[in-house]
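lol ok so funny story. i was supposed to be doing the assay writeup but got distracted and ended up predicting the structure for this chain instead. priorities right. anyway since i did it might as well share w the group, maybe its usefull for someone
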Amino acid sequence: MRFLKKHTITKALLASFIASICAATCLVGYCLYMSVDIDKRFSSRRWKIPSTVYSDSTLLFPGQLINRSSLDEKLKRLGYREVNEYPGKKGQLQATANSVDIYLNDLNLPGRKRPGFLVRILFEAGRIKEIRHLQAENMPTENSSFEDTPDENTIDILELAPEEIMLFFGAEREQRRLVSIDKVPRHLIHAIMAAEDSRFYEHFGVDPKGLLRAVYVNLKHKSIRQGGSTITQQVAKNYFLTPERTFTRKFRELLIALTLEAMYAKDEIMEIYINEIYLGQNRSVSINGFGEAADFFFGKPVTHLTIAESATMAGLIKGPNSYSPYRNPERSRKRRDFVLNRMHLKQWINDAELKTQLAEPVRTSGYTSYGKKAPYFIDYLSKQLKSLYPPEVLQSEGLSIYTTLDTQVQAAAEIALETGLQRLENNNPKLVRDDPLKRLQGAVIVMQPKTGYILAMVGGRNYHNSQFNRITQAKRQPGSLFKPFVYLTGLDAFTPASLLSNKKRAYEIDGKTWEPGNYSKGPEDPVRLRIALAKSLNIPTVGLAMQIGMDRIVDTITDFQFSTSVKPYPSLSLGSFEVIPLELARAYCVFAADGIQTHPLSLKTVRDENGKDLERRHLNIESLITPAKAFMMTSMLQSVVAEGTARSLKNRGISYPVAGKTGTTSGYKDAWFVGYTPDILALVWVGFDNGDSITATGSSAALPVWAELIKQIPQYMSNVAFKKPSGVLTAVICTESGKLAEGRACPLITEEIFLDSNPLEDFCDLHEPKGKVGRIVDGIISIFD
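and the output, tada:
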């Protein structure tokens, strides 16, 4: 009996030993299996980083006209924070009425890098007077000022970094800025440990004390009430497990944590945690990692976080929404103070630091909800990008996408359009529509003529109500905006001084009679070609087109790459066919760019996350017309502004050289204005999507929007005249005969320009060389002997 009992015990012990060996083998096998999965997961891309779209950079230089409020807003969007003391850290600025002192952030752009430095920008009479480079050691003390410090080298051109305008999110919509553990201040690591795992650098992935405490609480309540998780366990859960609260999942978490500790160093695990942890929500966008959270809550990089700010963010881990300083500032402060006291208990901060940091209020940078800026531009850009990169690449590989967008111009265009449309509705209540989808609409595009860069694009009044881009997708009749292309086609046979008939005439089209008329009573018959275009007269324009030949007008449309089909009808000369506004703006750029046609560009460069260029767009240009012809058209379009349908620009504060053209279609369905300087071109369209009449012309509906926009971006106004190229001659003509006035006593004369290939050779035959002579230059009559 005793033998049997002893045998049974031995057998039981052997079974237990075997079972233990099997269990250990299973655990080791599971850990080995997980190690393969972990290695695969962490050796590849650890996070899906959305690609970031940036605006173009901004150049500042002495003598440049400046919109000070617009510049201040830009600096704010770039993350510069105003401080009461002199800027002592990157990202700080101090502003006065006549200057702004900035500690610039580092600049890292394709092809150029620049470390941050101190700079002072001086303003005078609406211009940048001077830009100074300041040395940190020469910063003023309490008893001195900048005027007391030695003058530093002045700067000819200062480049401000691009703005972030959009991210290509994946399905998770996670926003994350990766940071290296080497760049994380030690007090942030201590704050995280104080809040979550004070013995992180001492245990092997599982903290027995914390685990026993959690087991006791959970058994007592017969459910999972306390996790007792270490930082390593949290990494294991976030990467490999579901959020369910069960004993099975907790056990798997423990095994994965042990495996992680065996495979990776502590600092590497901490770095993964710092970049992975969820810390809040910006509307539909998830804020992940301390890099993104530092910017979202405090508007600064992780490296600049104070002890109190670090404790605030560490306190978020327990409940990001419950302890958010935006949502619950008082709860956030109490949680921060708890973390600070824990840091003091662990001797990571001293008594003085604890006292100082507890006294600090919780100051956030101010909540800015995530939203797509310049949405119509971004949609246009996205279509181009998706032809280059699949969506999964844009959503996960952290590309940096640099564009041509100027956010100051974009903001000015959006405000000018909405202000103009609201003014039209206020002045004419019949234009008001209750249905948001049927409201009065408008569109604006701003380009650099010589580069094709799209600086701003507003495709409609409200993107939220309508994503239809009226700049790139709409097809509208251009009306009189097409007339310059008729006059251009005739420059080989006609001159600006040529006389055109202004008498009514009927034309036979497909068996029907068509008789064009002028919008208003114009000059007497005949009329000089320049004046016919300036006054936008229909009768002489159609007559000119018929003399040139409608087939040649169609050829011009083809040369300028309008994509819509046309037929050689006389009404074509008055813009009766449909065009895409972007193509119309591009066509006018030819006049402003010395005859060069550029391709509209929204994308400049794409770089991968390591800074390597993947895509670099170069200017795609071709010579379409001669510089001489381009200048001839610009000169005549300047007459539109000086004495024609756009002369009201003078009353709107536009005094610098501008060439432009108004356009109004039949029934007042479309109102246009396109205007340009040597540096910039903007096109404005106003109308209803369904073609309802707006009972307003291009000069009264679209031109005011253009003027308001241009006045808000003085940095693009150089006040330089259009440069006359070779191939253009100047002569004095008689305004009555349209012929040379040299040696004749013509009562009214003016200067006119001609192509050297088509010079004016005939002398005035209406007047003899006697009496007094009147001279008209720029609309002013002077009488002389």
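The chain is about 35% helix and 20% strand. The first helix runs from residue 2 to 43.
back to the writeup now i swear
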